[in-house]
Amino acid sequence: MGTHVIKMPDIGEGIAEVELSQWHVKVGDLVVEDQVLADVMTDKAMVDIPSPVHGKVIALGGQPGEVMAVGSILISIEVEGAGNLKESDKPAPVAAKETPVAPKVEAVVESKPAAAAPRPAAAVCQGPMVAREADERPLASPAVRKHALDLGIPLRLVRGSGPAGRVLHEDLDAYLAQGQSNASAPVAAAYTQRNDEEQIQVIGMRRKIAQRMQDATQRAAHFSYVEEIDVTAIEELRAHLNEKHGASRGKLTLLPFLVRALVVALRDFPQMNARYDDEAQVITRLGAVHVGVATQSDVGLMVPVVRHAEARSLWDSAAEISRLATAARNGKASRDELSGSTITLTSLGALGGIVSTPVLNLPEVAIVGVNKIVERPMVVKGQVVIRKMMNLSSSFDHRVVDGMDAALFIQAIRGLLEQPATLFVE
Fold first, then answer.
1. Listed residue (257, 303, 289) closest to 413, CA to CA
2. Contact 49, 74 (CB under 8 A)
3. Rounded CA separation 276/365 (Å)
4. CB distance 145 to 155 below 8 Å
5. Cα–Cα distance for residue pair 44/208, rounded to 1 Å
6. How far apart, in whole angstroms, are the C-alpha atoms of residue 403 and residue 416?
7. Range with the lowest mean pLDDT among 118-132, 282-296, 363-377, 379-393?
8. For residues 375 and 399, is the Cβ–Cβ distance under 8 A?
């Protein structure tokens, strides 16, 4: 038997160190080729580290939350044959330690399925149900955990068919097919007191988000401006275009119309399409409009970028927004796709509430927040009529943007959306 050492790979982009976000294996586990061993976090994305060999884990090179240099020893695996361990590479032993499982997003570096490789006997699933210790936390993605919670399935009773026993959506379906959900789920008595606590380590993407939000609120002089907009006409236009062209060109949401409104309004307010370097005291106004579209994923808020929105049609913008949102939610968005925005659009859709105070995406100086659409009685030409109304809750950096300019900018967007033909008048 020999030892195969896996070192922290060079992920590119000049990155010298990364954060170890989550282990998917522990000392003593049998692993197969292409099985995901760990997640590591760069400045922008989560990356899976797969195993290049079959073998048994004999040492881990760090703990979740630890920042590791590229080239440092990540994991040691006992393999048949000589392995690749040199005397100078031998790691100091690291005690196995149970750590909270951080949320996981699928790899930016994709792994090939190990269909042809036989699994170790310990990983072979014999059925949809398995007994685990009460405090044993089964491996599963946040989406699977939420699905299990919605279905009332105790996850610890479900046998996982994924790598290292990871529970998949198909395993939940198999569990339900066995009719075991209701019979096996523990029934809690009503009004039972609870004294349990859970500590969750702030690591990986959640740590990056926390750092960026704290940095933004400490450095920028935020102020917000809220205006209501009558979106009845733009919604009628959207419904008409979807009915006429939806089958051939794809369905339009409100977002591409908002992107178009930003592009047109920025022609008169170029100071909003800017980045502020507060250390160099330099404001850079950009001709290109790269719109960041805030997107919720399993690991938190990500902001993929629609590049050169000024050169895109409605359907081109819609297709790009959809592509980027899917990539971000699946963890497939690249570093370039998550950086370089000049102004950000953020929306919670139907959960958008009435008013919000979005945090700036530094070094940008403006962010436009979209609230939900509601039908309300409004007075139009002396008559009370039902109109579709929506608020824009937007934030600006007062170090760069004056209050009057911010108000005029949002009023310009309001005029464009309320008279949608003006969106396309050159």
1. 257
2. yes
3. 7
4. yes
5. 8
6. 20
7. 118-132
8. no
Nearest to 213 by CA among 357, 333, 22: 357
List residues bridging with 285 in a β-sheet.
Answer: 274
* CA separation for the pair 397, 401 (Å, rounded): 6
Catalytic residue among 169, 316, 398, 405: 398
What is the pLDDT at residue 86?
54
- 295: nearest Cα among 365, 209, 356: 209
Q: Of 174 and 324, which is predicted with more confidence?
A: 324
Strand partners, 366: 396
By mean pLDDT, which of 6-10, 259-263, 292-296, 413-417 is the weakest? 6-10
Q: Identify the bridge partners of residue 67 per DSSP, sorted by sequence position.
A: 19
Q: Determine contact, residues 22/102, Cβ cutoff 8 Å.
A: yes
The total number of residues shown for the chain amounts to: 426
Peptide bond between residue 256 and the one before it cis (omega within 30 degrees of 0) = no
Residue 402 known to be catalytic? yes
Whose CA is closest to 43, among 161, 281, 284, 212?
Answer: 212
Q: Quick one: 130 exposed, middle or buried, by C-beta within 10 A (0-12, 13-18, 19+)?
A: middle
Active site residue 43: no
Residues in Cβ contact with 233 at an 8 Å cutoff, skipping those fewer than 6 apart: 418, 419, 420
User: Contact at 8 Å (CB) between 327 and 305?
Assistant: no
**Backbone dihedral region for residue 353 (phi beyond 0: left; psi -120 to 50: alpha; all else: beta):** left
Distances (CA, A) of 182 to 153, 161, 186, 192, 323: 8, 22, 9, 20, 39
Give the global pTM. Answer: 0.64
